[in-house]
C-alpha cells in the first residue's frame, strides 16, 4: 500500500489555489484516501492565533520570517507528521516555498538565513508534491479587488507581488522534480485536468 503523501498548494495571492484545493482533496477521498486539509500560517491553535497577528499587524521582515517558521515547526510536529504516520494524506495551503517567495523574494530576507531556518525547522522534510498556481500579477490583483477586505499581505503593491512571483518561479526551476507549475490563467476545467493528472501520478508512486 502506498504511503501517505504530503502535498502543498502555492501561489501569489489571487492565483486561485484555494479554489481548487477542496476539489483536489475530495478527489483523493474518492480514491479511498483519508485526507487532512490544513494551512500556513496556522494549522494549530497556536498557529491560528499567530496567523491573526501576521495578517493584521505591521512588523519587521525579520520578525515576520521568524514567526512564520515558528508556527511551521508547531504545524509539522503537531499536525503534519502525526497525520502522515497514521496514513492520512496531508494537503497544506502553503508551506516553506511561501516563505522563500514572500519573506525572501518579497521582503528581501537573505537566502542563507532562509536556508538556515528551513534546515533547523524541518531539515530534509519536504512535500511529496507542490502545486504552484502561477498567474500574471495584474490578473491576480484584479481578482483580489473583488474582496471586501484585504489582509496585510494582500494590500501590498504590485512590485512586491512581482518579486514574490519571480521567487516562486525560481523555486520551480530549482526543484522541478517536486514542484509542478499550474497555469492558473486557464478555465477551472482545464486546471482540474492538470490536477487530476497530478493525483494519478501520486497514486502510482
UniProtKB/TrEMBL annotation:
Pfam families: Thymidylate_kin. It is an enzyme of class 2 (transferase). Gene3D superfamilies: P-loop containing nucleotide triphosphate hydrolases (3.40.50.300). The keyword Transmembrane does not apply. SUPFAM superfamilies: P-loop containing nucleoside triphosphate hydrolases. Phosphorylation of dTMP to form dTDP in both de novo and salvage pathways of dTTP synthesis. This is Thymidylate kinase. It comes from Candidatus Nitrotoga fabula. The gene is tmk.
Amino acid at each position: 500500500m502506498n504511503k501517505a503523501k504530503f502535498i502543498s498548494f502555492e501561489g501569489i495571492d489571487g492565483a486561485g489555489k484555494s479554489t481548487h484545493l477542496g476539489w483536489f482533496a475530495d478527489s483523493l477521498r474518492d480514491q479511498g484516501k483519508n485526507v487532512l486539509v490544513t494551512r500556513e500560517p496556522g494549522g494549530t491553535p497556536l498557529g491560528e492565533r499567530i496567523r491573526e497577528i501576521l495578517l493584521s499587524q505591521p512588523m519587521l521582515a525579520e520578525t515576520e520570517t521568524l514567526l512564520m517558521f515558528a508556527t511551521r515547526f508547531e504545524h509539522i510536529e503537531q499536525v503534519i507528521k502525526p497525520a502522515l504516520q497514521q496514513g492520512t494524506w496531508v494537503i497544506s495551503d502553503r508551506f516553506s516555498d511561501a516563505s522563500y517567495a514572500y519573506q525572501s523574494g518579497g521582503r528581501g530576507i537573505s537566502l542563507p538565513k532562509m536556508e538556515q531556518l528551513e534546515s533547523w525547522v524541518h531539515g530534509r522534510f519536504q512535500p511529496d508534491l507542490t502545486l504552484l498556481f502561477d498567474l500574471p500579477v495584474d490578473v491576480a490583483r484584479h481578482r483580489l479587488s473583488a474582496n471586501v477586505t484585504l489582509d496585510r499581505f494582500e494590500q501590498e503593491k504590485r512590485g512586491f507581488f512581482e518579486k514574490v512571483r519571480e521567487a516562486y518561479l525560481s523555486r520551480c526551476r530549482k526543484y522541478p522534480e517536486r514542484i509542478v507549475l499550474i497555469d492558473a490563467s486557464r478555465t477551472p476545467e482545464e486546471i482540474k485536468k492538470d490536477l487530476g493528472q497530478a493525483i494519478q501520478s501520486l497514486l502510482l508512486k
